[in-house]
Amino acid sequence: MIRRLRLCFPFMGLLAAALLLLIQVAQGQERTPKSADAPPPSTRRCRYVRLASGRDTTFFALTDTLTVVPSSVRANGRGLDYDGRTDRFRWVRAAPRDSSGAPLPDSLEVCYRVLPLRLSAARYRRPIGLMDSLGFRQPMLGMEDFSVKEQILSTPGISKTGNLARGISFGNTQNVFVNSALNLQLEGKLAENINLTAAISDQNVPFQPEGNTQQLQQFDKIYITLTNPNWSLTAGDVVLRNKPDYFLRYYKNIQGAAAEANFGPPILGLSGYGASQGVSNATSLNGQPGQLANGSLPAGLGNTTAPATLNPPAISQPQLTDPNRQAGNGGAPPLPQGDAAPVAGATVSASGVRKGLPWRSSTAIAGGVAKGKFASIDLPPIDNVQGPYRLSGPNGEPYIIVLANSEKVYLDGRLQTRGFDADYTIDYNLAEVTFTPRHLITRNSRIKIDFEYSDLNYSRSLVTASHYQQLGRLNVHGNFYQEADNPNNALNINLQDTTLVRRLQQAGNVGVAQVAGGDSVAYNRRIVQYHREIRVVGGRRVPVFTYVGVDSPVDSVRGSYNVAFSDVGQGNGDYERSDEPRFRSANGTVYTYVRPGGGRYLPVRRVATPLRKQMVTGGASFQLDSSTTVFVDAAHSRLERNRFSSASDQDGAFRVGYVMQDRRLPAALAGSALRGYRLRSTLDYEYTGKYFAPIDRYRDIEFERNWSNGSTQQSTGVTSVAREDNIFNFSVGAGKDFNNNVNYRLSRRFRPGEVSGLQHWLDAAQKVGNLEMRGSLFLLNSDAGRFHSDWARGEATGRFVGGRVVPGYAYRFDKNRVSSATTDTIRSANYFDEHNVFVQSRDSARTQFRLDYSYRRDQIPNREQNALQRRGTAQTWQGTLAARLSKSQDVRLLATYRDLDSLGLARNRTVLGQVFYNASLLQNQVRSELNYSVATGRELKRDYSFLAVPAGQGTHYYAGDLNGNLREDKEEFFEAQTPDAQYRTYIKVYIPTVDYITAFTNRLSYRLTTSAPRGWREAGGWKAVASRFATLTSVTVDRRTTDPRLLSRLSPFSYDKEDDQLLAFNQLFRNTLYFNRSSPVFGAELTFQQTQQKTLLAQGRDLRNLSTQSLLLRRTLAASFTGRLIGSRDIREASSNYLLTRNYRLLIYSVQPEISYQPSPSLRFTGTYLRTHKQNTLTDDLPTLPVPTPAETHPGIFDELGLETRISQVNKRTITASTRYTSVRFDVPPELQNSVVAIEILNALRPGSNFTWSLNVEQRLSNGLNITLAYDGRKASTLNTVHTGRMQVSVLF
């Protein structure tokens, strides 16, 4: 307790100091500035305009609150062409592209002057709408704002939306339930310079957004934010990002608070970092997504970095760590670069005179409970398989939940973009990543993913503080970061177990401890339990766990154990998942003993130990002149992997160097060949201690690979690596623009016992006329213990941009030979050559296309490992097309075909494709949307079980021990048919396994809407007849099959759902034909709908099918009478090959006439009659054959009469009362009515007479205040009456 108080006192003192500082700032802002110090208003404005990607010419308009003077618009020192008819400007430049020819995003700084008024603004004495005789009647000199909502609480200056509800539910068969709901959004001004933004809710959203779009909608964000020009305060769900620092990197989601205060003008480069309610962790380099030099700062204003190169920017461009050379999103404009930049440190007074040195600072502090922790893993790719690829924790945790929007996915060193029409999609709950057909995954692909995950082991606190200071040319900064698990607040560990705690204390400084998985407990029929017995194996007595279900009935007197099994890898365990048919119905996974070393699982439990990470960093930079800066960074870390143990790792690191950017070349070199070139150079030395452990990875994603070193332990800090690191870097280059530059870098690294090598990096780009050439080269000579690495890789690209079609050629090679330093043994090698020929459209073409052909040859060590031999060849054809066929049609195509010839193995052919097509024809009367893709993926085998939950929160119920084996089996659970709490006590949970099956995937999404043009109604003839019809069609198919035939791989439709090669299938088809859709007198609807789902389970396969054909006729009989007639034919089918007692196929016919009488607008009576016939038509595969039960053969006939009365008074109250009588004929004995078929037929009813009635009253008490009263009752045959009442009061904001 004393230790905790010691930690609290400094923290509370720091908060008090920060609060006092904020109060002083607020008081200073209230003082009225002297008029003599107020600077005169400036008419000059500057902004950045996004240029068209891939096009040489960009047209844009300048929008401003005042009138822009067209002749004053200038960019890069020259004026822009202006079209007065369209009020648009034109800018022409060569569109930038990367080394592969893909277009890069670009922007342009445009400066202009404005007039002190807006000439285009409308001027009037009174709005003309007040004179409109056809408009709403309103006073001549008055105006009414219809957008103002009625509200019970008035908050001037703050707009709010949402609702507050409190309710109670009770009944004679359930307990009293109290429910509440709060959903409130606020935005506005609390005071003159204080803005409020808030999202408040008390609802727990149990799911995360789907990771198939680039932008995520997170529903569970709760926060309150107060902002001021000089400070901000956020509480609730906060996203924390590190501010610019070389060693300290983090991206954390917390529940807590964050405060930030800025003094003086904003420091350039800090805007957009720190705390926010929710920010994207996507960053960019040189206009394209990628890894940044310091992991945080994006390229942009004030950052004229070199074009994209092979050089890892984390070393080649350390200048990005200097905040003084960064651009802010607001505040003062960035400093010009190069020799044209003024010396930093001058301020401007109100009279425009430069004086003094600025005193700028930014201080931030944040703390709270962390939602997850960081992990960085490598995923082994599978040749030609797009996914899904399962993510696991760094300590081998198999089941984790990835926090939404926390992932960074790198493919071959490049940061990918999330989205089904981009690079990848992710399932956050299953922690699975799937790549789209845009990228072909091969055995040579490199997949690295950084993410935050939740393991729910300990409560984790997080505290961070930072201070950044600028004084003239000097910039200093300091950061503190700590995240710590609370060992006294373990969510999944029983701390009363002294044996377990002692084992964790003795484990030492490790991230995970292994303890016995068996725990002796009392018998519990709800879960899978085991008996313990002793067997003699190999002459030794071995304890073995056996499933209690081996004995039938269960021996509940014998000792029972709850056993946790861990996956330790095939061949390292003694147990396997049981696939015996007698255990398939067990409510959970059953493991059986095989032999020592003959299985994959062990009866042990991996317990994560409480972790604490701590880091203190500091740095300084000094600007020698307008283009040269020297800097130093230092850090000290502390890592406790097990807080139950006293051991910890502590060490430090530092980095020192200089950066020179955009310096003019000496006169002797600035000749005709180098005219316009600017010089850039960097030099730095970095040292990290043996036990230095970063918070998150701070180096380039490919850093270790570029040193031919597979270890990434130093980067993640999860496992101790007792080796220091010494890195020296020097780079020099000259650049004119994107197409004319050259860069060279030299790196030396010494890591004792692991790496001792030298790197050379060279890249250049040159444009001669219409010929663009670009090349890069990387050389490595390194020793790693007894092995030596000689590595050379490079790329050379050329293309001719003189015509409408741009041809090009690219050559790539990667030759890494790792061999023994004393013998001729070759340990490993990455050795290939690749030739690529392509033809593409011009960057500014309206129709964009590209055709590629590549030939790749790989080599590997031979069997004797003394020479390289040919591994195989791969030929790849790829084509892309993006065209706008007309104003209402656009199409995007992507097709890839790969032919892999692996010597000595079967030939492998891969097909990838994607089609997007949107069309709108006949004045938007025909709309079509198509999305189709084909690839190779994997299908996961799943298991499921039923878990008990509080009454009323479940979806299923347990029907009792129907088979008499004294345990709960899957076949004894049924889906709840009523909302009663007593029938909703279990939930069905799907459990992922580790078994995947490679399959060919096919996805189709199509939507078609058709209707006749409006003019056809008056045209007569066949057009008038056609105008009465309209259709709506939608098809969604997701299919996975192992059938290798090309037609089966390309076709999204499957006709044999029982085919064993069809692993999984999801299909939704709906087609509706409308007749007289908008007619109030007569209309008809004909609907065909089918939903099919096939799931691959560990026990077998599960198939569900629901097919519906329905016809609806409506007719207005008289002024107050309306009639409707609905007829339908349904098929409900369930089929599985492991629970045959759950198979059925119901054929359902129903007819429902309905008549409504509405004598007045506020009163309506509705009478209905419904007749339904249900019968099971499944005649084969019944376990009861040849003598089926009556429930499996007898039909159910339902006759229902209903009457509903509705009284509605606008803005006052609504009363709805209904009663229904249902007669059920189902000739089945009561003891057989608990079968699956009987439950599906009866649908919570009973043979005989059934009554249901309800009353619902909604009353508006005042503005925004409503009360709802509801009562439901039912009386089934031979059962007692059930009464349920609910009351709720809600406030609308």
Your description of this structure?
This protein is mainly beta and 1293 residues long. Among the domains are: 2-26; 42-113, no CATH class; 1117-1293, Beta Barrel (Porin). Helix content is 6%, strand content 52%. It is built from nine helices and 70 strands. The chain has a 38-stranded antiparallel barrel. Strands 20, 22, 23, 24 and 27 form a five-stranded antiparallel beta sheet that branches. The longest helix has 29 residues, at 2-30. Mean pLDDT is 80; it is low at 1-37, 133-147, 278-355 and 712-720.
Q: Notable features of this structure?
A:
globular; 9 helices; 1293 residues; disordered N terminus; five-stranded antiparallel sheet; Porin; 6% helix; mainly beta
Topology:
Layout lengths: L1 H29 L13 E8 L5 E4 L13 E2 L2 E2 L1 E3 L4 E5 L13 E8 L44 E14 L2 E18 L2 E8 L21 E6 L2 E11 L9 E13 L11 E2 L7 E2 L2 E2 L23 H4 L30 E2 L5 E2 L3 E12 L2 E7 L9 E2 L10 E2 L5 E4 L2 E2 L8 E4 L4 E4 L11 E8 L3 E14 L2 E17 L7 H9 L5 E5 L1 E4 L8 E8 L2 E8 L12 E4 L2 E2 L7 E3 L13 E3 L7 E2 L1 E5 L3 E12 L4 E13 L8 E16 L13 E11 L14 H4 L6 H4 L8 E13 L2 E12 L3 E14 L2 E14 L2 E14 L4 E16 L5 E16 L6 E14 L6 E19 L2 E14 L5 E14 L4 E23 L7 E3 L14 E3 L10 E26 L9 H6 L2 E13 L4 H5 L11 E14 L6 E15 L4 E16 L4 E16 L7 E17 L2 E14 L13 H4 L2 E14 L3 E13 L10 H7 L5 E15 L2 E11 L6 E11 L1
Antiparallel strand pairs: 1-7, 2-6, 3-4, 5-6, 8-9, 8-70, 9-10, 10-11, 11-12, 12-13, 12-14, 13-19, 15-16, 17-18, 19-28, 20-27, 21-26, 22-27, 23-24, 23-27, 25-26, 28-29, 29-40, 30-39, 31-34, 32-33, 35-38, 36-37, 40-41, 41-42, 42-43, 43-44, 44-45, 45-46, 46-47, 47-48, 48-49, 49-50, 50-51, 51-52, ...
